[in-house]
Design brief:
Distance between the termini: 101 Å
Number of strands: 0
Number of helices: 20
Structural class: mainly alpha
Largest sheet: none
Radius of gyration: 34 Å
Helix content: 55-70%
Amino acid sequence: MIDFQILLEYYNEFPFLVKLAWDFSVVLSILITILIVYLKFVRKHLRKIEVDNLKFKNEYEGLLIEYLYSEEEAVEISEPQQVILEKLKKHVPIKAKRKVIISVLYKLMNQVSGEVTDALKVVYQNTGLIHYALLRLKSKKWYVIAKGIGELTRFKIDSAEDEIKPYLTHPVREVRKEAHFYFVTLFQFEGLSFLDKLTTPLSEWDQIQMLEILQKFSDQEICDIKPWLQSKNDTVVLFALKLANLYNQYEVKDLLMDLLSHENKTIRIQAIEVLTHLYGIEAKDVLKANFNELSLEEQISFFGMLEKLVIPDDEPFIEKHLFHKNFEIQLLALKILKSINIDKYLGLNKLPSNKKSLAMLNLTDTI
């Protein structure tokens, strides 16, 4: 007690700033001690949760595998399967356990196919998991909505069509994307009907992903893409052009010809490339006649068309552009000339140097 009084008197003799520094140090030390104790408690708690989750995961995996092997012919859900469903139902209302069950179902969905995935879909529906996914659609947080739609897509819940349809025009791109993928994954080409009235843009990446989804269904018959080629939404037109190219839509050649004069340059270039793929000879004469009005990118695409669709009558046009200011066009012109008139191509080496471009001097020896 005497020692404490001496320390207190000694402390009181300190200047104000020194006392303040000591006070701050003591408070800081106490806070650090409390924080260390709290962190140890949190670590212990998280470790316990991790152990419990692993235990639950192993338990649920065992139950679900047992469910799959308890199937009986002529019975939609066998008695042993119903017992397992009831066990799972008890855990579904608990958020932590619900997450574990869904993660186990995801894992099994990635490992199986065919009728087995249908059995897992029955589990998803009959345990009430679908109810919580649908609740997510009513959230005010866009990422919760997106996750809910993604989950319904993964388990192929086609009965949620009406609930998801409003999100096709959601202001957040990620939500719209998930809604698009839902309809394409579950309804294939019929699901693309949302393109009829789509006003929001489709990103290039989203277009590629939708094409990948569609290509998984080789037995599907493509729908009529003509309305999309006439859409006011440029990204819908670009997606329709990809469909025309991928699925060889020869019947839309007339609309592709119209797109050669579209106000969007990217669409015009894409239309040239699709017409090249579809052997659109009629487009060649139109583009040749208006060659000087084309942008440089369109001119390059047109020479790409000529490379595949050239005929001997195109030779004068090719010769006219052997000395084009663009290196790529020069190269394509030389390649085309070589394919239709090898003698004239070889004769280029005999031209005086002042009549050759620098590029041609290098190219005629390498092509």
